[in-house]
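Might you be able to consider the sequence and fold that I enclose below?
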Amino acid sequence: MLCLQKVIKNTSYQLAILFILLVLVLFTFEFSTLDYKIQSYFYNADTNTWLIDRNNKILDTIFYSGIKKLFILFILSILFSLIFLRRFNWVKNNIKPFTIIFLSGLLVPISISALKDSTNMPCPNQLVEFGGQYQNVSLFEKLEEKRPVTRCYPAGHSSGGFALLALLFLVNTKKAKITTLSLVMLLAWSIGGYKIMIGDHFVSHTIVTMIISPIIIILIALITKKVINYQSSRKK
């Protein structure tokens, strides 16, 4: 609980840093060719193929379909614990962290999906530069009304991995926090890296998701803290 209190206490500072980083990332990638330079390392123009074949069933199971099912199962297990295992001390003493983890696992992917709908930007493999049929569209350009649905920005699949940053509310020691952060980042970037190397996302797509996710998680934590504290005060 000490970790939860410290994080909540410093939310204004953390949110300010994250918003500044988000603006810097948006402008850096939107007004440069950095995304294309990085993406070109994963694309073979001669054979029109990507570094990783999306039809590879093993890799798809590990980094896409399989990990998605495990994430859903994990979030459902958190919900199950909150509903049916509240009498156990480990759950009872961690109602706030468990609630934050569940809501983050639900709302981070939903929020990123909503952003994908609003931006409606193409994936790298849909652009003419990488063998596709669409011209590149900047985030700040007005989209054509009849443009086909592409929904590739920001990265949606890795949002589940970055949503697990909410696990930091469950650990207290510095070592545990560093370990949790490292493992979550490794998992999220493994998922995001797979999607980059099959041509589904630019690097910036995943970086933006990485920054937006903790913003959402911190806001969830703030609201959760206030709601639970209010409910506790009502019971007294």
Residues 1-5 have pLDDT under 50 and may be disordered. Residues 2-139+146-235 form one domain.
